[in-house]
Design a protein that fits this description.
By secondary structure, the chain is of the alpha+beta class. It is built from 8 helices and 15 strands. Strands 4-3-5-6-7-8-9-10 form an 8-stranded mixed β-sheet, sandwiched between helices. A 5-stranded mixed β-sheet has the order 12-11-13-15-14, sandwiched between helices. The chain has a two-stranded antiparallel ribbon with strand order 1-2. β3 and β4 (about 100-105) form a beta hairpin.
Length: about 300
Amino acid sequence: MSDSLYKLVFRVQWKSIILLFPYPWVDLDFRRHLQAAENLASHLNREINDYVGVWRDGKQKKGALGDSTFAVDVPLERGVTDFFSDTDFNALVVTEDQGPIRQDTDYEAVYVIDPLDGSRNARRNLPFYGTSIAVYEPEASSVLDAKAAVVRRFDEKEVFTWSSGCKPTLNGRALKPSTKQDFTDLVLASGNHFASSYDIYLPLFKKLGEGGYDVWIKSLGASALELCYLACGRLDAVCDIRSLYCRAPQPQVYDVAAGLNILAATQAPFVYGSRRLDGRLDLDAGLPACFVGACSQNIYDKIISTINE
């Protein structure tokens, strides 16, 4: 057989293997869970189409984990329930508004899901909202113990995917953080998008302003997507410290689980925690969460030192 013919046969056979086993590099037990997470994200993307921009004033309801829930959240929470009712594997499934919605005996995986990351954006038809799904083994105890993660942006055709031992990707292409080393024209996404927490960010903003830097401050309103945007280089830094000051509303584990695992796989410097930035965050979906990350060590160190002053 000629070299060219051999290579052609090899490519055909390899593509056939990929078709049968879409993620051959993933642990066999989690291959179908990674595929299920992607399928669920696609399912929820279809579910939300008729509800974007639908909102009404009134007293906000609280979900099972304590966060505000809106009318736009309801069809997606229902979509998660419907999706898992048709699966043939045992799982513990925890969502933002319902808490545990399924807990089988001897479950083989734990799904921590925010069906709609950026609910307030979606209900007003503002860009930047999606879903985040992190999948864990039953014995996992820390937020960074995930085996797979999927974050899908609904208002754009963007799917961030990661699995243990593999590089994270955006639409199949490997993620790479920004190469920025200084603060000039730096883009920082912060968690100051509520008036109740604006003051806790002022010392950081003032310090950056005193340095004469043209730092862009963005309040995007979707934690998982913000973390992924740092991972792919569209943001240079992220900072959400509301839980350090017990300022509600604040992110919880279900908001950041998938995004943190995707960011961690890029080796970008970051720290997280609950009431402290100590690198400890238990796998408790309703636990408050805080995080700071940057594209380079120099930028990260500067932000952390300013926060600690």
